[in-house]
Amino acid sequence: MSQKAKPKAKPQPAGTARPATQAAAPTNKPQAERTFWRFALDERWEHTLLILSSVVLLLTGLPQKYRSAAWSQQILATPDQVTLVRTIHHIAAIVLTIEVLYHLGKAIFLLARRKLPGDFLPTIQDVRDAWEMIKYLIFLRKDQPAFGKFNFEQKITYWFLFFGIGIMVVTGFVLWFPVQFTQLFPGGIVPAAKLAHSTESIVALIFIIIWHLYHVHIERLNLSIFTGRLSEEEMRSYHALEFERLTGEKANPEGK
Amino acid sequence: MSFNHETSPRSAPRRAAANKKLLLLFCGLCACALLLLGLGNSPAAAAAPRQEASPTLGPLSLDDSYCLSCHGQPGSTMKLEDGSTLDLFVDPNEYSHSIHGEKGYACVQCHRQIGEYPHAPFTAKDRRDAALQLYPACYFCHSGEYEATQDSVHARAFDAGNKEGAVCTDCHTAHAVRPINDPATGKIRPDAHLWIPETCAQCHNAIYQKYRNTVHGEALINGNPDVPTCIDCHGVHNISDPTTNQFRLNSPDICTSCHTDPKRMDKYGISTDVLTTYVSDFHGTTVTLFEKQAPDAQTNKPVCYDCHGVHDILRVDDPQKGLHVRENLLKRCQVCHPDATADFPDSWLSHYIPSPDKYPMVYYVNLFYYFFLIPVVLGGMGVLVVMDFGRSMINRFRKNPGGSSEEASHV
Fold first, then answer.
1. Is A186 within the bounds of a domain?
2. Which 3 state secondary structure label does DSSP give A78?
3. How many domains, chain A?
4. Is B237 helix (H, G, I), strand (E, B) or coil?
5. What separation in angstroms does the CA of B257 have from each of A68, A240, B211, B266?
6. What is the pLDDT of residue B255?
């Protein structure tokens, strides 16, 4: 079963369902040390790079958006400073673009070999899960529904930012090369791209703050995107279906 | 110096009276000199002693008829050092119809140093030098305007060695000064609007010829006082150098001081959104930023006149040359974006506010974000997060009402 349960990345990194620390472990608390691989090394690097490039893009992009504010006018005070800010923005944009291309390229590579895991794709089950979750939140259910490897909240995070970053990259290049783009497309795409680029940046920022940071920091501290793995405890309570599928055990033996 | 007086109307009784006045003049001049020493070495003070003049004739005064007995007759001239001739004739009729003549100012209120005949020695290299020696008299009454001109592009050209740099009398004339403002309203008299470009044209004729065929110049000549003349954009007296970076960055303010005023624009059906639409777009953003933060910064970002013309400003709907003709706008774009093609000018919203008709793509992107994605999607997520947080707090409280120990999760 372990082959099936790989993270959506490469098959190699550690036996997925296996406890990360094995055999030699002292016998007093073997169960607590069982961990479950969730993100491959390249995926974790992608995330780190995404954070870094996004922070730089925001730091250099927001002053351009809020150019009438005093704080941003300090940053953009002279033509040289404007050029510097824009150059840094462009460099970070290239880093992000390379990452996007890697991400898409890998997906296409895996898809072509029919190895692209499907567990991050939205399904009708996610709609049902969301509905059950809402019922839970308004006290029509006693406990949260059981989720698979990625719950609907995590899938929303991925897809919201997938399209958000897509919009940012495409519109960003339109703004960077308006002359070239208007040779192929109507001129109106440039002001439309400007509006979309400017607004989407704020949408993505708000989204990360209220949705992503809440779910990975406030609701519970989930560092699996950095460590690569989840503990058994976390698997049992937040990804019960995945836990059961991987181990064949009941996630909540007492049925609590 | 050589005086060429054909007439010398001197008589004994007059001379006696004049001697007395000369003494008074001398005392007055001494007082002036002392005052000047006290004022220190400021160039303006040195150039023109600060004195108040009034229409009432003081002890310094000579009656105008005394002066005009010589200068009121044509033919009186004076040889200057370069051999040219200075005409000493002052048309009494012209002077009496000037604003100063009408108000009863006497010759000697400006020509203070000249005294009675025989005059104190007066030498000048040439006619220009003569004018330059005499024009500081304007300072006696018009010190504010005089000082303002010292900051002007004309004064700077003058200081740089161009003796033709305009001084008061070049524009206002010496003896035929016309009133420009209507004292009743404090505004420029309607007929004075026309004089202004004609005055500037004495030196700047090429520009005037351009201006008179533009949307503003043509209307002015047809009697419309709403349009700007030279001074509305360039200022009066302290006319700044229009070739500086600072002028360029400030220039949108010049145009928009009228073009954002609905009182003036509504009459002609012209949009007053021109500034906000400019500022919110790429170029205007940068220009207004630098205008505030780095007024001396050099920028190639277009300002109003880069597209609409400097002095050759035309109607945008001019069928041949107007910017509504796309090729004309494209040509302007290509000045900075040489590879721009036919669709490129649409990158700029042309002062339009996007609507379903104008720039629909921008309009619908805006709708998508502000009426769907932000309120519905992000708002919905926000609600879910708040509910989730609420439920988890309630759970924690129920599981552990005491709130202290934390054994609940471990079995």
1. no
2. coil
3. 1
4. coil
5. 20, 68, 19, 14
6. 94
CB atoms within 10 A of CB A32: 12
Long-range contacts of B75-78 (CB under 8 A, 24+ apart): B75/B6, B76/B4, B76/B5, B76/B6, B76/B7, B77/B4, B78/B2, B78/B3, B78/B4, B78/B122
- Position B20 confidence tier, pLDDT thresholds 50, 70, 90: low
Q: Find all residues with CB under 8 Å of B241, minimum gap 6, and list them.
A: B153, B156, B247
The Cα–Cα gap between B4 and B76 comes to 7
Question: A residues 204-243 near B, CB within 8 Å?
Answer: 206-207, 210-211, 214, 218-219, 233
Question: What is the C-alpha to C-alpha distance for residues B379 and B365, in angstroms, rounded to an integer?
Answer: 18
CB pairs under 8 A between A and B: 115
The pair of structure tokens assigned to B52 is: 């108040």
Residues A81-96: pLDDT tens digits? Answer: 999 999 999 999 999 9
Which amino acid is present at B234? H
| The two three-digit tokens of residue A28, written as one number | 């007093």
Q: Which residues pair with A231 in a beta bridge?
A: A35
Rounded-to-integer distance, Cα A192 and Cα A4, Å: 44
Residues 6+ positions from B157 with CB-CB distance below 8 Å: B164, B165
In a domain, A48, yes or no: yes
User: Which of A170, A205, A210, A232 has the most B C-beta neighbours within 10 Å, making it the best mutation to test the interface with B?
Assistant: A210
- Identify the domain containing residue A48 by its residue range: 38-116
Prediction pTM value: 0.77
